[in-house]
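Per your request, structure below.
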């Protein structure tokens, strides 16, 4: 008899989400850091100013991550407790919601103490934009935008892929997301080599960003009408097909305006504004992290329900074994 993998996958996703909320990322020996080291070494060997080389680089690393998860999925297929435990461990490994919250609140503490230098430095842990001249309002905006976008990238999207594809899906998504953070930049070195990583990241985060937007509506029902209106009106103006969805929904739910001018080294990006309220004040960081936590909880429940439903459907369509 086949084990109810949908139920054990659902349980593992919920347990892994709970572990992330309680523990955050491990301080030392995080598997993602080891992956980053491997990716850096492979980049030294494969790098060329070429999209083809970038496709090879991305395919090898993301494919290897999925291949690592596949035998774990198979080995625990008929062992419900083991499958739940391994799924939970993989989920905890790839989620980053609690660490995102800690970093955002750390910047907020510097802002509350009027320590702009400290806030600018700590903000570099969250964003890739140039922080050296940002004032309090721009620092706050950067934090809220990072919380919104990374709630999708580091929480809702991996949960979706965990529900759909189990352990291989969790590991492959985190690999794609990490590679985008490493090489997915629009600069002379990575314009071509990082193209595949950036486009793959856009693709794999499409369902998670939409789930994050819907979760905002569920998590803040009183602001749902405003959040949906801003989402529908402003999301398409964002340069990211995913970031615009979740940032606009957050802006509407929080009653603020996001977007504006960002500097990335020598490149300046003028983003359309999203929302109808004032620019975010420092206290909005606390509200944004609270919203992110609730969005993650809604997403975890939805992903577990999807996993259970998918498992039930597979059992229903799978032919009974001949006895």
């Amino acid at each position: 008899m086949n084990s109810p993998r949908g139920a054990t996958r659902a349980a593992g996703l919920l347990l892994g989400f709970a572990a992330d909320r309680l523990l955050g990322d491990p301080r030392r020996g995080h598997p993602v850091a080891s992956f980053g080291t491997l990716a850096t070494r492979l980049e030294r060997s494969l790098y060329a100013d070429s999209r083809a080389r970038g496709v090879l680089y991305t395919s090898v690393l993301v494919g290897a991550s999925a291949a690592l998860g596949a035998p774990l999925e198979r080995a625990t297929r008929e062992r419900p407790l083991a499958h739940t435990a391994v799924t939970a461990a993989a989920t905890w490994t790839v989620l980053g919601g609690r660490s995102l919250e800690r970093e955002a609140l750390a910047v907020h503490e510097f802002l509350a103490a009027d320590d702009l230098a400290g806030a600018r430095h700590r903000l570099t842990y969250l964003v890739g934009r140039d922080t050296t001249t940002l004032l309090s309002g721009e620092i706050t905006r950067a934090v809220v935008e990072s919380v919104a976008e990374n709630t999708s990238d580091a929480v809702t999207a991996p949960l979706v892929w965990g529900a759909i594809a189990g352990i291989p899906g969790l590991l492959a998504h985190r690999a794609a997301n990490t590679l985008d953070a490493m090489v997915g930049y629009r600069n002379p070195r990575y314009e071509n080599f990082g193209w595949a990583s950036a486009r793959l990241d856009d693709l794999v985060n499409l369902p998670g960003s939409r789930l994050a937007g819907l979760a905002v509506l569920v998590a803040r029902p009183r602001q749902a009408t405003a959040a949906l209106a801003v989402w529908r009106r402003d999301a398409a103006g964002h340069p990211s097909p995913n970031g615009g969805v979740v940032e606009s929904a957050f802006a509407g739910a929080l009653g603020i305006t996001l977007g504006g001018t960002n500097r990335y080294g020598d490149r300046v990006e003028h983003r359309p504004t999203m929302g109808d309220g004032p620019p975010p004040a420092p206290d909005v960081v606390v509200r944004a992290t609270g919203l992110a936590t609730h969005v993650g909880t809604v997403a975890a429940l939805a992903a577990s329900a999807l996993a259970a439903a998918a498992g039930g459907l597979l059992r229903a369509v799978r032919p009974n074994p001949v006895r």
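The chain has one domain: 5-312.

Regards,
D.
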